[in-house]
Design brief:
Strand 22 and strand 23 form a beta hairpin. The chain is of the alpha/beta class and 531 residues long. A seven-stranded parallel sheet has the order 8-15-16-17-18-19-20. The radius of gyration is 23 Å and the shape is globular. Helices cover 31% and strands 22% of the residues.
């Protein structure tokens, strides 16, 4: 199929305020050349264009996931799927581990991903004792859904060098029983100690993971995403190898973890924006805190029933500020993982201090996740021009953990798209896959209903309408990567990236939007995926 494409008889939501709806779109050489009526588009379309009749289905600019982990998503497809639901108990998890142990040679790692103790009948994390009974000869590591906490069995702890004499690493915690023995639960950088014991994937493995992960987004109608964490040269090489071969399934904006690489990038003159529309260097990334589900997000006040726990700093605050200023002055957009309100306070301080010391026009720094906020924080985000990247389906999947750990009042403005919009804040939607599945429709439904997978509401005052939710996945995502000039809306001169749904979205109830499927994903005027 060529990249000259004519789409007719559609219900286009263009996201362009000057022309919000259209019937047809014509693309030539991968670029939009006409948006309007069927006659308007046919009049300028190449006579040899491929024609797709949408039959009244909705089409939008290609969807953009502003924060995800495609490489990890591709990797996770090889691991045990222990998400809860459908997994309901630790006994089920243990049974799955036992089955994996029977199928593979002794000594080979068993990895599982996705459990949530708040959704398990046991209401606790698994422990190494649970796992040791069925895996004495295999190292096992199970990731909680947030990927900030894991559970390791004795074999895995031994490979990581963790025993009763091991101290907590900076920015991490090894859970212990009353006798001081590790329970197997490892948090943040302590989880990293176990991960380091697993052999690094080869370059060809990384390419396979990236391509497979990006294909999953493509199938979900996503045409652009963010790889939220390049921290090894091999990972960047794998992306570039796929780019050279023309094998990237969708467009990707790379977040560069800068703890070890900032000096080298500065020396080479690399800045945010280097690249092309398929593969581009994005923000310099840092981590300020952990997760709500793991009680490691840094909070102003303690977690429920833990008067001495306000979470963890992943980076000493003054060092965080130093790195932000250095990256800012080197021309980088900065994107920092910050979930707790204390962490967000720190990041806003760091951004404001960097901009005051070295003013730059529109640095457009980001807060990844930006979960626990209040009106004062949102006012400050608006004043500083910072871009929040909320996980718009987190409440759908993790509401129970949020309530158990913080209570309803403290999550009043969590992922509050209505309040963000009312304050003029451009918030770009994301999944954080594989933390949750890469389906943007779940996030769109959650923005519209503010209900979880069981139908329980969470501050419905923050609900927004369909067009606003789609805007968060199109225009706002383009804005968050400085690419609003080439994508995010359907108008002449922009990239021919379009998502076609299986129905007219305006006829679907808000609570059923998550069930809508994508019929066609179009990139550069070419249909790259059809259901």
């Amino acid at each position: 199929m060529s990249n000259n494409l004519l789409l007719v008889n559609g219900r286009f939501k263009t996201m362009n305020p000057a022309q919000p709806t259209a019937e047809a779109v014509a693309m030539q050489n991968g670029i939009i050349i006409a948006v309007g009526s069927n006659d308007d588009a046919r009049a300028v379309a190449d006579r040899n264009s491929d024609v797709l009749d949408l039959g009244g289905r909705t089409a939008t600019p290609g969807l953009n996931d502003a924060h995800a982990h495609p490489m990890m998503l591709g990797m996770s497809l090889d691991d045990l799927p222990i998400a809860s639901p459908p997994v309901e108990s630790i006994a089920q998890i243990v049974s799955m581990v036992a089955g994996a142990a029977e199928r593979r040679p002794n000594g080979r790692w068993i990895i599982g991903r996705g459990y949530d103790q708040a959704r398990l009948r046991d209401q606790r994390h698994p422990t190494r004792a649970d796992l040791d009974a069925v895996s004495p000869h295999h190292p096992v590591l199970l990731f909680r859904a947030c990927h900030h906490i894991g559970v390791a069995n004795s074999a895995a702890l031994a490979l990581a060098g963790i025993d009763e004499s091991t101290g907590d690493p900076d920015g991490g915690q090894i859970d212990r029983d009353e006798a001081g023995m590790p329970t197997g639960v490892v948090r943040e950088t302590a989880l990293g100690l176990v991960q380091e014991a697993i052999a690094e994937p080869t370059g060809s493995d990384l390419e396979r993971y990236i391509e497979r992960g990006l294909r999953a987004f493509q199938t979900a109608g996503v045409t652009s995403t963010v790889e939220a964490g390049i921290d090894r040269p091999e990972e960047l090489r794998a992306y570039q190898s796929l780019w050279r071969a023309g094998s990237l399934p969708i467009r990707t904006y790379l977040m560069m973890i800068i703890a070890e690489t900032l000096d080298e990038m500065i020396e080479l003159g690399i800045q945010t924006g280097f690249g092309d529309p398929w593969l581009r260097i994005g923000p310099a990334k840092l981590f300020s805190d952990g997760s709500i589900g793991g009680r490691t997000a840094r909070m102003r006040t303690p977690y429920a029933r833990q008067a001495d726990n306000v979470g963890l700093w992943m980076q000493e605050p003054n060092e965080m500020k130093r790195l932000v200023r250095k990256a800012h002055s080197a021309g980088f957009q900065v994107g920092i993982h910050a979930i707790g309100d204390a962490a967000i306070d720190l990041i806003l301080d760091a951004y404001e201090e960097a901009q005051t010391a070295d003013p730059r026009p529109d640095p457009r720094h980001r807060i990844e996740h930006c979960s626990i906020v209040d009106v004062e924080i949102i006012d400050r985000i608006a004043r500083l021009g910072v871009v929040p990247i909320p996980g718009t389906s987190f409440l759908y999947y993790f509401r129970d953990a949020y309530l158990q750990n913080l209570g309803m009042e403290r999550i009043r403005h969590t992922y509050g798209m209505r309040t963000f919009a009312d304050h003029g804040v451009v918030a770009a939607a994301s999944t954080d896959a594989p933390v949750v599945p890469p389906n943007p429709m779940t996030g769109i439904q959650t923005m519209m209903t503010r209900t979880d997978q069981d139908g329980h509401p969470t501050w419905p005052e923050e609900a927004i309408g369909l067009d606003e939710a789609l805007r968060a996945y199109t225009v706002n995502g383009a804005w968050a990567s400085f690419e609003e000039g080439i994508k995010g809306t359907l108008e002449p001169g922009k990239l021919g990236d379009v998502t076609v749904f299986d129905t007219d979205l305006d006829t679907v109830a808000a609570g059923e939007i998550g069930q809508v499927r994508v019929d066609h994903t179009i990139i550069d005027g070419t249909i790259v995926c059809s259901s």
